Structures are given as structure tokens and as C-alpha cells.
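Why this split exists: single-chain examples teach little about how molecules sit against one another. For that reason, every record in the complexes split bundles all components of an assembly together and asks for one structure covering all of them. Below is a record exactly as it appears in the raw files.
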Amino acid sequence: MTLLWVLVQEGIGNLVFGVVILFYAGLFAFYLLSRWLLEPENPLFILLFSLLLACWSWVVLNGAITFQELPAQMHAPWPWIAKQWLAYMIFWGISLLMYQRRGRHGRV
Amino acid sequence: MSPRFRYLVLFFFLPLFLYFSMYTWNWKTGYLDRLASATGLELAGWILAPGRWLQNNVDEFWSRYVYLVGVRQENEDLTLRVRELEFELGRISEKAKSADRLTSLLRFSPEASWEKRGGRVIGQKLGPNAILETLLIDVGSMHGVRPNDPVISTKGVVGRIAKPGLHFSSVVLLSDATSRIPVITSEGRVPAIVQGQGAGAFLEVKFIPRNDPVSPGEILLSSGQGGVFPKGIPVARVVEVTPADVSLFQKVYAEPLLALRYYEELLVLSRNDGFDAGQAVIASPVTNATSGQSAPPAGNASVAPETPPATNASVTPGNGASTATRHPVRKKP
């Protein structure tokens, strides 16, 4: 499923193959880093992880655009990162809530 | 080797090496890009297409059988006929204008034959990597669509095929910043290049010399240079002309003839004479010569951003020579 998901995201995107893989590698690394610092149930974990992920997504996209020599089309970083950060926090919060309500009261 | 160094190599340097190897291999061959188009784009299309089909059928049912029966049908028929006639009229008038010029030539090649294939828009700018201004249409390589095939509407040029999947394809619009189309003004026959500036911004018309005539309201037609777009198809309408101050060229801005929100059914044109327009829009630079495309011929689709329009200039994001000049973008009011 992971491979299919990566292929779907790469297929519908406009950049050369590899951007999504790099993003998910960073996601995994930042998850380990955040988990090393904080517990996943801690709201600060969500804040830190979401912020790192939002920054990483901007870096990856901007880097891919620069590497492919596309005309600059990325928006200004901080408003874009702020929107991503907010979206990640909301989705993570909803997912955590649903996970806990479905009877899995253990640790995340 | 200390354990810490071993972990560093195993979990950082080795994956990084493997990633860059995969990236550069795909850069040269394009195999993974084609795999992603054949799977990911295909899957996304099959998910979106039923929803759009359902929406179209519900709209049609409502408009034909519930709301203004008969009158609505007649109106739709007449509108379609008018669009066909407008397109035909534009094409024929250009042929008529070129007839006198062609008769003075001793020898000329017959006009390339183009095959038209209809497609429906089913999505726009999909996914987290949607950087370019693109549409998703429901025709692909199984229908004979190839990279860089022109896409037009009854009003004029829409863009070109960026990434063909099996049954669905991604179209990069002429408003995208990577889009450059060789054009000619309808009245003064001045060659130029139309460059997109992104969504919500006017198109920039480059390389019109300071003394050449161009006026607001004038239509820009595809010039046929580069062999990607057929000659004579409307591209844009001039909206603003600013005389040159110290530059050799005038500052001219144009707008597409049809707004993005009105794109529904489009036509994909394919050449029948075997001419290859070169590497795809969304591709790596010139080293990607083996990604299913033959080596670009002289009239190819590589961009030469700052050369006069007599040379072949069209779209490609990275042919190694492109460093897009960053000048202020003229936004629509």
C-alpha cells in the first residue's frame, strides 16, 4: 500500500520522481526525533512534529523546484508553512481522537 | 568501525547514496516517471472520472428533462454549432491570409496533418507536488496522446500534454510560468513569445521590437515555429502595450482567450507525420534523452528564454540553459 500511495502521489504531481520519497523519509526521521524528545500523547509533540514537517515539506518542494530549474513558483515560506502546520495539527488531533475513541486506550 | 559510525553509515549515508542513485538514474532514463504516470496518474484518473461523469449526467438530466425542456436542448445545439463555426472561421481566415504569401514561394512543404482527439477535464492541480498549473484530462497514451501534444479548445490554445498516462494525461496550461509559446500578431504579423506568469497573472509577450506595431485587443496566433503548435491557432489577446524606454523590446501583456474555470471539453492534437516535438515538459534536462523520446531535432521544444523568436522556443523546465529571468509579474486587476 505504501508503494502504491507513493506511486499515486508521484504520478499526479508535476515534479521528477523522488520528491515524495524524500518527504516521507524526512517525516520518519522527524517522527523519531520528536518521539525521542517528547511523548506522542503530549500536545507539544504534535506542535513540534507538525512544525518540523511543515518546514520540511517547504524545503523539499523548493529544493526540487530549484534542482529542476523550474521558474520560481513557490509562495513565500512562512505563510505557507503556517498553513501546513495548522493543517497537520488538525489532522493529527482528529486522528488521535478517533484512535483513542475506537477503544484503543493504550499508548500511541 | 565504531558502532556509532556504523549506525551513521547504515541509517544515513547508505540511504542517501541509494536515494541519489535512484534519482539520477531516473533523471537519465525517466523510467520511474513513466511508472508513476502509468500507475499513480491512472489511479487518480479512475477515481475522479466517475465522479465527474456522475456530475455531468446529473447536470444533463436536470437541464434536459426538468428545466426548460426543448428550449434548453436547442440552445445547447446552437451554442455548440456557433463554437464550431468560430473555430472553423478562425482557421480558414488564417489560411486565406497565408495563401498570397505561399503562392510566392518556389517550394514549400505541405501543412502537417493533425489528428484531433477530444478529452474532458476531470481535475486540476492534483496532489502535494502540484507546482505547475495543470489540468487532468481523460485521454492518454492508449488513445495516441504523446508528450508535448498541443491541447486546444474552441476558443484557442489551452496548453500542452505534460505527462501522458495510459488513459489520463496531465496538461500544463499556457498560464504556467514554464509555458512559452511562439506566436505571431494577427494584424502586424510580428513574431513573439508568449510566456505564462502563473495563475491570476497576465501572460507576458516577449521580444516585440520597439518599433513594431502591436495594439490592445489584437489577437496573438500560434506561429508554428518549433513544430509543437500548428500555425494559426488563437493563443491570447493583447491587453496592455507599454512603449520601450531603454529596452529594445516593448512591454506587452496578454490574457488567455478562455478563463480556466470554463475548461470542460478540450481537443488534443497529434501529428500524423511522425515529427517528434522533443522531451516532455515535466522532465529532467537534456540528459533525459532516453526517456522514450528521440533526440530533439532542430525544431524542438527546448526553451531558449532570451533569444529572438526566430529560433525555436517553447516549453521545457530544465534543458540546462534555462535560468528564467525573474522580472515583476503583471497581475490582473
